[in-house]
Amino acid sequence: MSIANAGVLGLKVGGVEYATGDTAKYSTQTREVESVAGGKGRIGRSTKGAIPFIEVEVYLAQGQSADDLVSVREETVILSLEDRTVTLSEADFVGKGEPDGAKNSLTARFEGTKGVEVF
């Protein structure tokens, strides 16, 4: 998993642009590898599947609603950072989708079938 602590420029979901917070989490990995411990330390490794994702706080502009994001299914999601772009293919919104009325924002998490990070 990668965390972008600064330099988040924005998010595009199905061609619609959204303003975002300064930080984001993402991963383009489709598998995770773990060590298997035994009586004498590491005795092997185990591999399991992982799901590529993007998670970021989205600020809703005039005419945009939380429902626009919560209803996202099988869309292309693009996270633009100062030094890279992260793209998810066939991405769905996952999570509760509860907006913060005070900031007119929503923490959005999208999970896709494939993630690509381009520098």
SSE topology sketch:
Layout: E1 2-4, E2 8-13, E3 16-27, E4 31-38, E5 41-49, E6 53-59, H1 66-70, E7 75-81, E8 85-94, E9 105-111, E10 114-118
Antiparallel strand pairs: 1-3, 2-3, 2-7, 3-6, 4-5, 6-9, 7-8, 8-9, 8-10
What is the makeup of the main sheet?
6 strands, antiparallel, barrel
CATH architecture: Beta Barrel
Structural classification: mainly beta
What is the succession of H and E elements?
Answer: EEEEEEHEEEE
Q: How many strands appear in the DSSP assignment?
A: 10
Helix count, DSSP H or I runs of 4 or more residues: 1
Helix content: under 10%
Strand content: over 45%
Q: How do the strands of the widest beta sheet line up side by side?
A: 2-3-6-9-8-7
For the record, the CATH class is Mainly Beta
Give the CATH topology: Elongation Factor Tu (Ef-tu), domain 3
The mean pLDDT is: 94
Terminus-to-terminus distance: 16 Å
C-alpha Rg, in Å? 16 Å
Whole-number tally of structural domains:
1
Query: What is the global morphology?
Result: elongated
Low-confidence stretches: none
